[in-house]
Please model this.
Amino acid sequence: MAEKSNQVTRDLQRRINLLVRETLKDIRTEALDEFDRNFEREAFFNEKWARRKFNDDKSRGLLVQTGNLRRSITGRVTDRDSVVIETTEPYARIHNEGGTITVTRKMKKYFWYRYQTVTGGKAADGFSKNLQRKKNGAPRNNKRNRALTAEAEFYRAMAMKKAGSKITIPKRQFIGNHPDLEKLLKEIFYNNAKNFDAL
Model:
């Protein structure tokens, strides 16, 4: 009788362990999908991200220049029966939480470099060499030129900031707790629990 009771207990424990493992895997997958979708939504679920102050290029999403930040989000199930979602990009935290950064001489050099890259240097008329031009040589007043000019002005303004001054980075959260996520995770748990007898 005791042997049968032990067998039932072991079987029950095996099924519970399997339920926990499968649920954690499903939670990991769902959380990663939702955090990835935040980049498409340009919002933390339903909380819209602040727009750019310069060159708000609709063809390039917010927080997407190379795609490295978005691709860097990973998840794993730990030995302690929990799920960890993380990113290894060093600038992820400032974007996720917002805050201020201090301008350094190295940053100023980078902004001057970006300014030179965008403008392509100055033409004889004082305008950027990268601007599209009319037949008479004057810069065209088109979307591309306006975007280039706005981007160049942004980099110039950043390069002109004094070393030691502060830049405010708006919060554009893409990872973290949210009521919509909690609701989804509860649904995963309840759906998996319903199938407990089948394990």
Observations:
- Strands lie at 43-44, 47-48, 74-77, 83-86, 99-102, 166-169.
- The helical segments are 2-41, 68-71, 92-97, 105-119, 143-160, 179-194.
- The longest helix spans residues 2-41.
- The chain has a mean pLDDT of 83.
